[in-house]
Write the structure tokens for this entry.
Amino acid sequence: AQKVTQAQTEISVVEKEDVTLDCVYETRDTTYYLFWYKQPPSGELVFLIRRNSFDEQNEISGRYSWNFQKSTSSFNFTITASQVVDSAVYFCALSEARRGAQKLVFGQGTRLTINP
Amino acid sequence: DTGVSQDPRHKITKRGQNVTFRCDPISEHNRLYWYRQTLGQGPEFLTYFQNEAQLEKSRLLSDRFSAERPKGSFSTLEIQRTEQGDSAMYLCASNPNRSRADTQYFGPGTRLTVL
């Protein structure tokens, strides 16, 4: 069965600090996709990144970076030089490619608070 | 490009009443998904449509829940005889289904409160 675990329920840091959000997943499939979404107080889930299981290259987008390690089944997300606007709940999600629904299985989320 | 829209954004109802939510996906996205998110949890899959066909339903979707997508465009989710446990955020998402890697884009959600 698929499972996503985000062990950090809440993280609070001071602005400009770097912060890493952890994500560990379980799946029996060899082909799957991993996602990160951001949920600000308004409630809408905002897509941040998608990574497929065959691509273990790390990715950087501005202050955001993602570290995918298949050996440890982890897909961690780092925000460098955090800003107050980064405050939100962040979700990691998994989709198994061979299943027809492509439904997303989400972790419980990490509430990130950036204090000025 | 218009995103996924949902209506209403908030709904307060009394236990036992019926409620209906609407989702308008991104234009030309043929897959539409419904998820439910309770407080402090991640979204959970409820059901999805490919065009007008409902292809999978979660065990979370009890007999009191029904979803439709009659013309393959907008979708409705109805809950009959609401219970307090139905209080949650109901999220809709869509994707173009060009490949298995397609990203789901979410609407702002409908927050349901059952008194």
Observations:
- Chain A touches chain B through 28 residues (CB under 8 Å).
- The CA atoms of residues 18 and 106 of chain A lie 24 Å apart.
